[in-house]
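Notes, Module 5: Reading structure tokens.

Key idea: the token line is not a picture. It is a compressed description, and you learn to read it the same way you learned to read a sequence, by spotting repeated patterns. We will look at two proteins. The first is printed below with its tokens.
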Amino acid sequence: MKKVLINGAHARYLINLRRDLMAAMQAQGWNVVACTADYDDKVHQTLDEMGIQYITAKCARTGANPVMDIGYLFRLYFILKAHKPDIIINYNHKPVVFGSIAAFLSRKTKSIAMITGLGYVFTPGRERRRRVLLVIMKVLYKFVLRLNAHVIFQNEDDRELFQQWGFLGKSVKNSVIMGSGVDTSICESCPACVRPIVFLMSARLIYDKGVREYVDACKIIKSKYANIKFQLLGQMETGHPNAVKIEELDRFVNEVGIEYLGSVETSGEVYTYIKQCSVFVLPSFYREGCPRTILEAMCASKPIITTDNVGCRQTVCDGSNGFLVKKQDSRDLAKAMEYFINNPQQIKPMGVASRKKVEAEFDGAIVNGKIVTIVEGVLN
């Protein structure tokens, strides 16, 4: 029996983003092992129920800490030596870097890298910390990606950038598979138009996700229209250099009138809120892979307003299932939001278009089937 190890950074995302992929691999008769850099009791319980062994290899989530990072590399190496997987699939920055090296050192395990977005480090910014980390990551990626049997990207922009920088070389096989896939059977079509109109943004609460632009756009709309609701859903990010601070969030709630819904852990909980909105908004300028929250909103038949940004633009056919707006432009965002206020009859057909698009391009069965085919090719 072939053994596959899935290695990522965050336990809480393992079930939401990789559960169906792990189940698809089990359906091939493979023994699946999951590894994350942190531990979660609920995740452990869910994996136990699936018959998947769960192990942890601790590492610092952000920044460069040479001592902890070297320790993480050795932990991964000894995990590979102990469990002897035929293949390790790494996603998130540090698991890709150190998981690839550990697989190479093991001499037995083949490695696949999944580039699920480039995140904070690769998002343009003037902070010295960001610039230093970018230099480090470029050096590491240029070395480690060549150690992989296959590299999977979630959007063409990231692949083109890596090719431009010479990260892949001529020998590294690579593919673009859009998104992590969503189970379109979980959420059926929802009421087309909620009254009053409700705009919902769901994202991790870091400014690169467009939180400030959303707040400013809500101010513009509020100054012109009554009886419009604005909601914000997402987890506070402690320790992130670009995180929204709690006092700033309180100001958004008290001064702008945005309803903060807190954070959720599962797709089922996310759908509870998405079903109650009219239009979904994600004005991100972050280096996205393919935002899961947008795909979930499309599943629920919601029109999408997002940015003409890496990872986001592939989810929207402008004017069909929503609108693409300029990055970091709250006025352009407000203009798109205003369209739905003045043309509420367009919410239903655009929502239907979202549902059709997600079923055709981002359904989990399609996405995971493509990944399984790649893994089969590497194993054989």
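Here is the second protein, with the sequence above and the tokens below, as before.
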Amino acid sequence: MGLVLKHFEQSKSGSWQYRRRVPKDVSEVITKREFKRKLGDSRKEALAAYPQLQAQVEREIEAAKRRLAGAAAASGPGATEREAYAEALRRRADLITKGATEEALELAADALADSFPQDGYEPLGAPPVARHTVNLLRLGPERYRPPEPTLGDALRLYLKEHLKVDSAETDSRVVGLARRVVEAAIAAIGRDLLLTAITREDARAVRDHMLDRVKASPLPWQRIAA
């Protein structure tokens, strides 16, 4: 018996096709019901085309999962304003990709804003992603610019771009150290400041905080000597 390939079948016309239902957990992003494409008229031709298409579909599914994970993270309690803005920008782009006109974007903004209590033209109590989405749909990214980056934003970018935090090869100890350093800085300052707002006094506060932590937790050789 030969190798049985998933999502590989012969159509009624006799040709071979790839057919696979879109997983439910990504159906919010991949809105079609299934992946379906002709692979070839002969089995040999179809088998040759199968690996490339299978890999392409897997990449699309993984991208959709990352998209949903990013959306969940941007709506979470630990998300920054820039992360919420980036998610709102993706939502606007999704609507445009689906063919939304300027009028349709305005209507979508009004519908989202109307789902919250109103104070004049502004929705009250809207979470950051919803608030940024409304403003981006109404004004566009040219007129509604992203928030200034904070220390927390800088940490997230460093972890993603430099340390490759999502890679299995990344040393978790290095990631942990980077997190602890920035979290200590935020604790010393008292809040997650904008990068452009950090002053010399803030830097001194961070330095003193770090020195106090070293004194409170001596190095192993210092404990032995004592």
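Summary for the second protein:
- The mean pLDDT is 87.
- Residues 151-225 form one domain.
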